[in-house]
Amino acid sequence: MMTTSEACLTGLSQSSAALGLTRSMTHVLRVQGFDLAAALFGAPDAAFDRLPSQAQALLLQGLILDFTARALPGPGAELRALEMRPGLSPIPDEAVEITGTIAARPDPETAEVAIVVEGPRGRLADASARFRLPPTEVTSPVGTRPDIQLHTHRHLSALMARSAALPALTAAVAWPCDRDSLLGPVEAARRGALRPILVGPRALIEETAAAAGAELAGCEILEAETPHEAAAAAVRLCREGRATSLMKGSLHTDELMAAAVARDGGLRKGRRLSHVFAMDVPSYPKALFVTDAAINIVPDLKTKADIVQNAADLLHALGNMMPKVAILSAVETVNPAIPSTLDAAALCKMADRGQITGAILDGPLAFDNAISKAAAAIKKIASPVAGEADILLAPDLEAGNMVAKQLSYLAGADSAGIVLGARVPIILTSRADSVESRLASVALAQVLVAARQGRGA
């Protein structure tokens, strides 16, 4: 065998590569491999059964080369030639067996290996490879294979593709006076998603556009001298029906929201306003919605019920009619010393009694149990939400904000942000957010407005 210990591999030498020697290795084709092959050939969103033939060949060649490096002829051999003939298309989660045989020894230094890749459906590939063998056996540590994550952000891409068929929003954009806060609505307008009314100082907006190389064609400008004036004017446009959404520019969130929640002239409807981050986390299999991370600082039980209902209504607009809500805390059991666990228990009972509708709630749940079935299983948590959460309800703004920003900066997540519960959607992004995040937030508002108006996406 090529394995001398659990941590090392030993390859064949010129004297040990006997004609007819055969070795086999079993491998399970993982979806990550298909994603990587697709990305390398410029088709990151292609379904596995629609991979370009070159991407399929790359996947199979990778299997074969891995076999030759680990099994036959193993470490130390130098590849001189490889010819592969593909057969059936590979599919994810299929266990395949790679078998190699020393088919010829043209000279003392050379070995030709015949390789076959077989699966339960039949032959996926056969190949022939020629190697220069080392004079003595070479031992190599097995090593740990790194995890590879592709940051494709396919969930937000799908959202933007879905919104492309919807009517453009008319958005009052309050104080778009830096590059990203201006390019977001301008690019959305170029794509036909937005009709922006830019509220702020005309000279500064035009100067910012010129510095960014952006065209303001199709953008209306409404003069306002200060961020406070811009916020009030943008809210007024929404109240008067001239705009169907409100969008934050480069002003502070509290300046915009003060105008939006003003008792006289604001955008309140009755339910408490709340913010939702739609997070596209590369390591999570679906979009993850985090709430509230921007508006309600220390929400009480009634406010949390509104926050949950707002988020559930948003997911209904996105087509998920029964989203799973994980109510976060530090522990999974009710503890009177931890108020968030009491709120979690009460919210679950409110859902049982129909006070919160259109969602499945469970809590308290720690973050790991909310997003990982394995973590929930270790703690013997039986729950329809654990490991499958669509919505994470944070105990307070500090926790929600930290979760969202940690996902962005440590887990490579992209996000869209929106405020719910007002007369119109409020597109609320961080001043540090990219143009793509702002475009995704516009798409989220488009879908929400279309749902309110009875249009499907």
TrEMBL record:
Alphabetical keyword list: Acyltransferase, Transferase
Entry-linked InterPro entries: Phos_Acetyltrans/Butyryltrans (IPR050500), PTA_PTB (IPR002505)
Pfam families reported for this sequence: PTA_PTB (PF01515)
Phosphate acetyl/butaryl transferase domain residues: 229-445
Single Gene Ontology MF annotation: acyltransferase activity
Keyword Iron on entry: no
Entry protein name: Enoyl-CoA hydratase
Species for this entry: Falsiroseomonas bella
